[in-house]
Design a protein that fits this description.
The protein is mainly α and about 90 residues long. It contains 4 helices and no strands.
């Protein structure tokens, strides 16, 4: 696998965003936590979008709650919120 200089620069910038100008294990742990949180947020947004698509296609709130592992109230709130404003 090879990486371009732009790939490396982007990765460094993303890690430095969370390191809080620290070094060592604490900085590495903060970078991992921050990057993981970003990824989790993006995955939740994708999940919510797919919940809305499935509901519009005829899936019931109960079905969506079962497959997502979320409660029906949470699924209802996602469906009623509509697509995120980007």
């Amino acid at each position: 696998m090879s990486y371009t200089e732009a790939d490396v620069s982007a990765a460094r910038a993303a890690m430095n965003k969370y390191r809080a100008e620290l070094d060592g294990e604490v900085a590495a742990a903060l970078a991992v936590v921050g990057l993981s949180a970003e990824r989790a947020l993006k995955e939740a947004e994708i999940r919510d979008d797919m919940i809305r698509v499935a509901h519009e296609s005829g899936a019931s709130l109960r079905q969506l709650a079962d497959v997502s592992g979320l409660g029906r109230k949470t699924v209802t709130a996602i469906v009623e919120a509509g697509p995120p404003q980007r």
